[in-house]
Specification:
Layout (H helix, E strand, L loop, with lengths): L14 E6 L5 H10 L27 E4 L15 H6 L3 E7 L5 H17 L4 E7 L6 H21 L7 E6 L5 H11 L5 H15 L3 E6 L4 E5 L6 H22 L14 E5 L4 E7 L4 E8 H4 L2 H39 L12
Parallel strand pairs: 1-2, 1-3, 3-4, 4-5
Antiparallel strand pairs: 6-7, 6-10, 8-9, 9-10
Helix pairs in contact: 3-4, 6-9
The protein binds guanosine-5'-triphosphate.
Catalytic activity: GTP + H2O = GDP + phosphate + H(+)
Keywords: Cytoplasm, GTP-binding, Hydrolase, Lysosome, Membrane, Nucleotide-binding, Nucleus
InterPro entries: Gtr1_RagA, P-loop_NTPase, RagC/D
Length: 351
Amino acid sequence: GMHFSDDYCTEVKPRILLMGLRRSGKSSIQKVVFHKMSPNETLFLESTNKICRDDISNSSFVNFQIWDFPGQIDFFDPTFDYEMIFRGTGALIFVVDSQDDYMEALARLHLTVSRAYKVNQDINFEVFIHKVDGLSDDHKIETQRDIHQRANDDLADASLEKIHLSFYLTSIYDHSIFEAFSKVVQKLIPQLPTLENLLNIFISNSGIEKAFLFDVVSKIYIATDSMPVDMQTYELCCDMIDVVIDISCIYGLREFGGGSAYDKESVAIIKLNNTTVLYLKEVTKFLGLVCFLREESFERKGLIDYNFHCFRKAIHEVFEVRTNVLRCRKQHSRMQRSKLSTPNSTPRLLL
Ligand SMILES: Nc1nc2c(ncn2[C@@H]2O[C@H](COP(=O)(O)OP(=O)(O)OP(=O)(O)O)[C@@H](O)[C@H]2O)c(=O)[nH]1
């Protein structure tokens, strides 16, 4: 079985479960988003026979677990402490293979969601309608409409219409999977408005067009300013992170494997031939800022760097407040635990 220590009460990262039927694409999503595997390589991924897998990413802002859901899993199996797991979960992603007959997947989705909701009403339920690269645009829309309708009808039939499901069209062959993941993670960050505010102030004072706060390992953006997100800009920023980390891995590490490919010193400037500039800087161990700006604005690099310094400091303060709150909560829950034997609070996800 899968056991989480009581530490989940003090977890500082968003905890996300990934579920779905066999071959729906869970491992591929995890490999592509968190381990830089190229989409084509996933063709050779072997199906896992284990009941569940526990994949926690230590290098990412996101705490991520995959929970396989082969047909035979039994919620009544006493060795399977699903209550404990759902209680510590911020978001449950359910992957539906859109290229396959999805009736069985929808039945599983319904069972899973209704179980999870009983344990924890605060879980965000996110449905990835996956592998849509194989569908035409019309077919995509029709599939989404159909899945949406059936899933909600099932909930209504069970008088569970309170449960809200969000739907995303995803594929590992383009950026849609990163975009969807970004949205899922952002919902779990209570300080999101603060982060957005800081980004707005930073870009408007620095003449920057767009800025993304990225989880560097996964290229999920955990926040951006309020200007609309243009897919191409987002993709460029993702590509920049890849380039910077790759170069740093090859030429930036100290001899004998010392140091890390991403640290306090990490910074990069890329000038494109269309008078735009990409500017990347380290913010925290897991997070980096990627800015998209005009060449003219970059002439005032001193100002940008000064503003960045203030921005970075503010972000660290947001984190410190969080850490202190957690430290208090940890002490508190330790005291509680000596009195009570069952944890009863639901942690919402935290910075
Ligand atoms: N076309 C397409 N194929 C995908 C996509 N994502 C995953 N696949 C393919 O789907 C197959 C199954 O993917 P897995 O990641 O092994 O699925 P899984 O859900 O982890 O499967 P189990 O380990 O059996 O539970 C692989 O051949 C992948 O290449 C996608 O977005 N588009």
